[in-house]
Amino acid sequence: MAAGIIQLYCRALDITVDNYMITPSQNFKEIMTDIRAAFNLTFRLVVRDRKGNLLKSFSEVKIGDRLLVYRDKYENVVVEEYYYELYLGEKLTKNWLEFSPVERRKHIEFLQHPEKEPIHNILRITMPYKHVTACLAAFRKTPVESLSAKKALTVMRFNWNMNFEQQYNTFTLRYKPAGEPDIWEKEVYSALAILSECTIGSPHITRKLVTDAVDERV
Questions:
Q1: Distance from the CA of 196 to the CA of which of 3, 12, 28, 102 falls in 20 to 30 A?
Q2: Which letter, b or e, does each residue of 100-126 get, where b requires 16 or more Cβ atoms within 10 Å of its Cβ?
Q3: Which superkingdom is the protein from (predicted)?
């Protein structure tokens, strides 16, 4: 890239570095060392674009870009640009809904993890519109006393391959209703179970979008 000004943001530290200069004469290691100094960090860090992609070179970075700084490669990736696509098993050997939830989940997990670096910003909607609206209609008509938290938790575990505390650890720590999860309103579990049907195999992206939605309401 030509010499240019970019912006750096570290979510964990909640620090933004404006007017950061990158020049063509700098190699990757030199730039990373400078970024570490800019955030006063002494340990290794990683830099990603707004889609969550790991940067291994700064050659494609453009003037005015915003890059996300993480303190290590294991830090939870929070992206700033999401894309959504309806995926109903195109090019598979049978109808998407004929596969079991576990089969659908494993297939989506495979698509979300090409090679070694997972995709952090594409959420695949895995149920057709009619199915979603039918589930929501049935949910609204069901008396609260007939809803089953246990069943909803089982559905979420199958669809996201995580138990509730793993999936919504951030959610429960920051926003959880009063009391333990087993006495929460059953509607919470049931609504999340429907969401898991629509986002099977994508627990991390879904969690971020749910917590973002909660953030907007508190």
A1: 12
A2: eeeebbebbeeebeeeeeebbbbbbbb
A3: Eukaryota
Distance CA 111, CA 208 (A): 19
CA distance 166 to 153: 12
For the packed helices 149-160 and 186-198, what is the interaxial angle rounded to 10 degrees?
Answer: 30
How many CB atoms sit inside 10 A of residue 131's CB? 15
Distance CA 33, CA 73 (A): 16
Residue type, 77: V
* Measured torsion, CA atoms of residues 167, 94, 98, 158, in degrees rounded to the nearest 10: -20
Q: pLDDT, tens digit, for every residue of 146-191?
A: 888 888 888 999 999 987 777 666 454 555 555 565 666 788 889 9
The domain locations on the chain are: 4-70, 83-215
SS3 of 58, please? coil
The pLDDT assigned to 216 comes to: 76
Q: Which two tokens stand for residue 63?
A: 């003037």
Nearest of 87, 107, 109, 111 to residue 99 by alpha carbon: 107
4-70: in CATH 3.10.20.90: yes
